[in-house]
Predict the 3D structure of the following.
Amino acid sequence: MRARAQVDKANDRVALHPRLVRVGDSRVRGAGSRGVSGSATGGKGRMSRRALAVRSVQVAIHRLGGKRCSWIASTAGRTRALKASRHGCTRKVWMTAAGGRSWHLSLQRSLPRGRYEAYSRAVIGAGFAEGRFSRGDGNLVRFRVG
């Protein structure tokens, strides 16, 4: 049996229409033994308002010091130790905060004494999340408990 000739030559072309979207931005305003709070703004670009709006904010809290990469893994205060890569503690354990433009993550118990880092990232409706963290941008804060 012979194969038929292709019906539509337009199927041989690829047309890409990339969309440049700036993801949302989050800032940590306060961090302490009982939680983290802050604010977030939506993304920018040529998409619907719903796709650019802040869908959620995620927070990761890292306990500094010690030999292990220790992350707060739940609002109950449980920790999770992850194996460090040769680049340090690069994998994060994310928890979803309550709220959107104004958000907070409350812990059920106070954190133990020590030094911590809190990371925050805004997730927009299109599913894109912030990917760079720095103290200058405001989405990385170091704090001490005790």
